[in-house]
Amino acid sequence: MTVREIQDFAKKMGLNASKMKKAELVRMIQKTENNTPCFQTGAASSCGQENCLWLSDCK
């Protein structure tokens, strides 16, 4: 997903997503959804979130 697409996704959730980097945006969305904000923190192989929307971009 591009940063623009993620910003649009966040905006639909009522979040202010301007001027944030991709990882910050995704973590903010994860937190809002009551998920662990683990995007690109190195936890992809151990997070247990196989159905995560962001998994393909995660490291």
Characterise this structure:
The protein is mainly alpha-helical and 59 residues long. It has one domain. The mean pLDDT is 90. Helix content is 36%, strand content 0%. Helix 1 packs parallel to helix 2. It starts with a helix and ends in a 27-residue tail after the last helix.
Bin the helical content.
25-40%
The profile of the biggest β sheet is:
none
Order of helices and strands: HH
Shape: globular
* Number of E strands: 0
- Strand pairing plus helix content: what structural class? mainly alpha
Beta-strand residue fraction: under 5%
Q: How many domains comprise the coordinates?
A: 1
Number of helices: 2
Mean pLDDT: 90
Calculate Rg over CA atoms.
11 Å
Name the poorly predicted regions.
none
Q: Report, as a whole number of angstroms, the end-to-end distance.
A: 14 Å
Map the helices and strands.
Layout: H1 3-12, H2 22-32
Keywords:
about 35% helix; single chain; mainly alpha; about 60 residues
Task: Summarize the model shown.
The chain is 36% helix and 0% strand. The protein is mostly helical and 59 residues long.
